Hints:
The chain is mainly beta.
Amino acid sequence: MRNRCIQPALTGALCLLINTLAAGEPAEEIVAIQFSGNEVTRERVLLREMALAIGDPADPDGITRSRQAIADLGLFREVVIDQQPAEDGVALDVRLREKRYLLPVPRIDASSDRDRSYGLQLRWNNVWGLNHTLNAFVEDGRFPGDRQRERERRGRLAYDAPLVHGRWGLAGRVERIERVVPTSDPGNFDETINRLELLASYDLRDTRPRRGWIASAGLATDAQSTAGALAPPRDGRATALVLGANHDNRRFHLYSETGRRSTLRTEVAQRGLGSDYGYRQLTLRHDEYLGLSGGDHHSLYLIAEGAWRTGGTSRRNTFDLGGSGRLRGYPLDYLEGERFGYVAAEYLRPLGPDWLRLLVLAEAGATGGSVDAQARTGGPYASVGLGLRMRLSWFVNVEIEVGLAWPLRGGDGSRIFAGGL
């Protein structure tokens, strides 16, 4: 609403009275929406996130919701929406500062178990300005302490297009893994795994900012073969029907989030229907992002995750806990099984600049149903940790953490953890 008090001769009290009366009037009509700073992002991507359109009244609540909805894309360092006087109404001036969307980074990982891997990753966000994402990587690793692999070469290409036509989206990935696998006898054999997945999604969210359900369905194929004198029979191919649901109600605040997210995914493969073996698998995860008092980006993140699988090849466990992702106080693959449960709490507080936050974490997890008699199962096992988490705001979804974690049961003492990107 433009200020009605424009005559300098009016006294302050009269000016206040006029503005108070004017505040009850309907908001002026939006006659134009103009964007600046979006050198890559297409205007139609921005317009579909806005809670207001040309012809709507420019009410403050709608402007606030539009700004947050655009910020929730995660593509911008800054989003500002102002009103400008225009003939027969107002124009909305949307000013943006885009992040950098192309990020090639080295992949380097090492542990106290002498495991090491290196490679290259390419992340291209906001492909063609459409909010699509391409992620590709190749890496080569040596794992002298691992019973499942001595060496592994791996490559993956994934593409995610959340909204291709209307509410419909597509996501796909291809992956190839080449392993040298040790055996109980002196020697080894070669293993090759090829994976392919294609999913269609439908966005059921009507609100701005967006919150609600996204449903997905598609197919996933996993083909494994072996070679060498000591190689066991190959597992063959499994083609599974994949069904998923994702409830997303997160708000992005550049260096932190608030809200919640839940995901569910189920896979079903039936022997004889494009598969050499059958299996059933269910995975669940819930993330709660709580904003705490005492300043911006002061947060508590709560995580609960679990999975269950039955059937399959009965040669390698599907799930594991340990390493820099889950149960950071334990070595990689410390726990294995065909089911697992995991909970974590992460306390985060800025240390001066908002992009650098203290991380205090507590985790617990357990596994069961192992197909490998030598694998460790049971629990719960727990660890605590202290570290730093850094978010590089000039790139999309780039966050790095490093710290020290201590196991509370078993384990090998304190461990350095690092991860991100």
